[in-house]
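Hello Y.,

Per our agreement to keep a running log of every chain we model this quarter, I'm adding this entry. I've kept the format consistent with earlier entries: sequence first, then predicted structure.
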Amino acid sequence: MAKLFLLGIKHSGKTTQARLASEMLSMESVDSDDLVLSYLSVPSIRDYYKEKGKSAFMKAEKEAVEKYISSHDDFMMSLGGGASDNDELIKLIRENGVLVYLWRDEAAMLPVILKHGIPPFLDPERLEESFHELYQRRDRIYRDIADITIDLGPYRDKKETAQDLVSALEEKGYVQHIR
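Predicted structure for the entry above:
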């Protein structure tokens, strides 16, 4: 049984890779944002975060993930890009599974993030600087807590990337891919 948690910067490909790689491994895929939405019965995480604040969101995030992992085995969960800031969540997932950091180069990330609008955690007045600071801080945290770091490289064919992810997990003995 494997409980795999995919970590990484917002829009690095965690949800897509979890879906594709878990399919290859015949395991369940789940997104922590979907768990939070269901747990809170709210239409938008962004709106909840703006209204209730970071602390309330992080508490709900930890509780939603905890509820899920207490009743499921053998899954790959993509976590929100800000999971690095949630100490209680990090403690929970470290105690329950394998942490996989999906790394992408900083220069590739900001344009992808901005396609979806300016997120609330970036300063619109200092967009590039605030992203650089955030990226550097989160990258350090993810590298420190991850059991394995996988360089996803530049954005390319998603299925090939998922196969590379599965191969890296197999090499480290975290999963067995039945071919």
